[in-house]
Amino acid sequence: MGLVYGVPSAGQTGIQNAKNAEISWSDDETDVSELGTKQIIGMVEKVLVEPGGIILDARIDTGANKTSLGAENLQIVKEDGQDWALFSVNGSAMRAKVLKYVRIKQHGAPSQRRPVVMLKVTLGNVAQVVPATLTDRSNFKYKVLIGVNFLKDHFIVDVSRKYVKEPASAQ
Q1: For position 55, which CATH number holds?
Q2: C-alpha to C-alpha distance for 153 and 125, rounded to whole angstroms
């Protein structure tokens, strides 16, 4: 549905204009051409994360550029000149090669330096290998934050819904 604004009568200005403006919904304005083959998902979905093969509840965040995984007991070790992240998620031990480090700015807090690793994430029938930051998400309800780098070109988010899709391998 498209949002349609009614134009107030001539000669009305300022607050009078705002009070008399009509707002209504019209099906005539709907543009579904963007939908194409994109799937509709909710603001929270179950995802399969690998390495680890763990199914987790994920918060879908269209405001986050990158996907983020809550890594418990995160340690960075160096092997043959390469950094590796050793961590656990829900008690399952994982190991991933660190691609790089990024600084994440948080409102009202100092920026954090986070390792970036490649994760295979599956939501519905879409499986992608995406860069993901590792961070302590123990104070958050969801261990996984799915960012735009996973969502782009595949999904449309309906924030009024939850658990619309299951990972294909979990169905």
Answers
A1: 2.40.70.10
A2: 14
Instruction: Report pLDDT digits (tens) over 116-161.
Output: 999 999 999 999 999 999 998 888 899 999 999 999 999 999 999 9
- Inter-residue contact 76 to 134 (CB < 8 Å): no
Strands (E), the chain: 2-5, 23-26, 39-42, 44-50, 54-60, 67-70, 72-79, 82-89, 92-106, 109-123, 126-135, 144-146, 155-158
Rounded alpha-carbon distances, angstroms, from residue 137 to 18, 39, 55: 43, 27, 16
Only one residue has tokens 């204009």, namely 17
Give 45-56 pLDDT, tens digit per residue.
Answer: 999 999 888 999
Residue type for 171, please? Q
Q: Are residues 108 and 137 part of one domain?
A: yes
Highest mean pLDDT, choosing among 18-27, 101-110, 139-148: 139-148
